[in-house]
Amino acid sequence: MTDPPRALGTDRVEELDGETVVLVCPVSRTWQARTPRSTVRPGHPGTAVAWADRIYEVRLVEPLPDGGARYRLTPWEDGQTIRRFERYDEDAERGRAEARAGSAAAIRNRRLSILLAPLAGLLPGSVQKAMQNAFGAPALGMTVASAFPLFVVGFLGMFDHILGMAGGFVDWPRGLAPPLPVALYLFGESALRLASAIAGREPMGSFPVVVAHAAWKEARGEGAPDAAPSAEPTHAERERSRRDRFAILEPMLSLLPAPSQRALETRYGFDPQRWGRITAGVLLAVGGSNALASLAVLAAGRGDAWDAIGLVVGGLLAGEQIRRLRLLSRDEPAGSALGALIRPMAGPLFDEP
Prior knowledge:
Largest sheet: 6 strands, mixed
Low-confidence stretches: 222-230
Structural class: alpha+beta
Number of strands: 6
Shape: elongated
Distance between the termini: 71 Å
Radius of gyration: 31 Å
Strand content: 5-15%
Number of helices: 11
Number of domains: 2
Strand order of the largest sheet: 1-2-5-4-3-6
C-alpha cells in the first residue's frame, strides 16, 4: 500500500485500497462518477481529477447526509478520453471556496431584494436590471411591488376628492388620501411604471429617485479622489456615461420632440412607439380624470381658481395625448410639451460621439 495523497482543507482521505483512494469532502464538488455501459447507452469515464502528480478518475460518488460527498477515485486508465477535467490543489480549492461564497452572497442579496422590493423598485430601471443580472433580483416584480401601493394611494386620494365634491366624507388615514395634486402625481407615475413593467416588460423607477440617483452619480464622478484634475475622460468613458444616462431616462424620452426621438432611435435603439403609447395612455388617464374632477366641482358651484386651472391644464394634457396617439397610430414619433422638463437631463445624449 502506498502513502495516500494529501487531502486539502477539511477534506480527508478515508481509506486507500491499493491505488484506489476514497476522499471524503464536507462540501460536495461538481465531480461526476463513471457512467457504466448499458444496452441503450455507452459508458463514459468519470471526471478526471489532477491531484498531486497523478490524474485520477472519479469512479463512484456517494452523497452524505450533511451535504458532503464521498468520492472513490482510481488512477486514470490510458486510452480513455477525458471528458471533464478538474484540479484538486490549493488554487482550485480557493477558487471553489470563493465561488461558493459568491453564490451564498447572491442568494442573500436576492432574498433581501425581495424583502425590500417596495423600496428597491423605486430605483432606476437600469439599476434594477443590474441587480437582476448580478444576483437574480426580480426587476419587474420590484417595480410592480413599489408602484402598486402608490397607485392605490393616488387613486384613494382622487376618490376622496371626488367624494368630498359630492358632500360625502370618509375618515381616511392621512397617508391613504393625500391632497389632490399629490394623488394625481402618484396615480399617474405609478400607472406609467406599472404599464412599463407589465406591458413593456421593462423595470422603471420613480422620477424623483431617478433624478436623485443621476445627480448622485454625477456628483460622485466629479468628486472622484483618484482622478487627475486635468485628465480628460476617454471616448469610451464618455460613451458609457451616455449609455447609462439613456438607460435611466429611456421611459421619459418619448416626451421629447419627434426629431430628437428619431436621433435617439438611430443612436441608442430607442423605441418611440412603445414608450410613446405607454406615456400617452397614462397621461391621458391623468389629464382626463383631473379635468373631469375639476369640471364636476365647478358645476356643483364649489370650485375656485385652482379648479379652473385644473380643468384647463387637465383638458390640454388630455387633448395633447389624443393627438400623440393619432400620430403614433401612423408610426410617427409624438412628443409632448412636458418634454421641456426632460430635455435638460437628456442633453448629453445628443453630444457628438
